[in-house]
Amino acid sequence: METKTLFIAICLLTTLKFSKPKLVSGLTKGKMATVLSIDGGGIRGIIPGTLLAHLELELQKLDGPNARIADYFDVIAGTSTGGLVTTMLTVPNKDNRPIFAAKDINSFYIEHGPKIFPHSEHSSFFGGPKYDGSYLRSLIRQLLGNVTINQTLTNVIIPTFDIKSLQPIIFSTDDAKANVFKNALLSDICISTSAAPTFFPAFYFETKDANQKTHSFDLIDGGVAANNPTLLAISHISKEILMGNFQFVDIEPMDNKTMLVLSLGTGAAKQEQKYNATIASKWSLFDWVYYKGGSPILEIYGHASSDMVDIHVSTLFQGPQCEKNYLRIQDNTLIGETSSVDNATDENMQSLVQIGEKLLETPVSRMNLETGSFEAVEGEGTNKEALSRFANLLSGERKRRQNQL
């Protein structure tokens, strides 16, 4: 699935280098297309929540206390818990401002996490998912009401996966404006993208198109297709520019120097020799699903999906003139309970906050395309310094566009 997405992205970028995009009327010229991407990862959404709070604070230092993340990014993409964070940052309140400031995201997780992932529930493997999801569904519906995806303050992209058609279903603000049947309730989309197999039930809902024809969706967590949705966001912007629908950048031709991408992970377990072929060759179907407290098949799919995206995107941004335009912040050293997606004890959630704060002080790292491991980059400082640099670029881009209105 990720390879197919990469092929589309490369085709779009290549086409743009040899053709002039058709520009929409009333175009506001800018220098950069801006992207924020947030991984899936359950309660570990606290980690990007910490990073986003810092970024928004830096933006407020530049542009005042009312500055919000949604004011600065052309596209915000999120999967699973990242989809919920994306929604919190972009859904308007009665004053047409985001319902949450970035600093409030962690408070939301700390308040509601223990009820979303109640410690008393446990997996039977033969009697349904680990959690019934009733609290999460009720909370999301209360939070979002009747808001549909075409109402977000900036374009959002939230992936899900349809188990009936065995196809990824990507919901976006732009698609919702173009196709009525894709303009689903954000509550339905958030419940769907968070429906992680074995943890929460799959989710069914219906929409109608312009001719009142019913479209049905049988959805689970978008993480099975794109746990790291960065490439989806890049592909989407490339498509919009190619089609002449992108309103904020006059580019001829498109190249990666004109795209600013911030990709936030939710952490991953420390790389270790956890399994081997000798052990795995003896596993039954049950062992692949559950082995010594973990789920090898889910871990493999999760790591493979996220890592392949980072390999693809890192390759696109290789080179001295554009590599700084892509910042991936991820901790691949989680151990013990912090690596769990559903441990919502007070102690573990505070540990996740501390991991996010520690990441701010960690040197900027990039993936070594030969080894697949992240390595510190000399001369680029810490992630905190890199986020400050991004804040300055984002603020400058926003002011440039406002001055032309």
From the helix content, strand content and strand pairing, which structural class follows? alpha/beta
Radius of gyration over all CA atoms, rounded: 20 Å
Share in β-strands: 5-15%
Round the mean pLDDT to the nearest integer and report it.
87
Instruction: Please tell me what the overall shape is.
Output: globular
> Which architecture name does CATH use?
3-Layer(aba) Sandwich
Helix tally?
14
Would you list the SSEs in sequence order as H and E? HEHEHHHEEHHEEHHEHHHEHEEH
Number of domains: 1
Task: Name the helicity range.
Answer: 40-55%
Task: Report the span from N to C terminus.
Answer: 40 Å
Could you say what the CATH topology is called?
A: Cytosolic phospholipase A2 catalytic domain
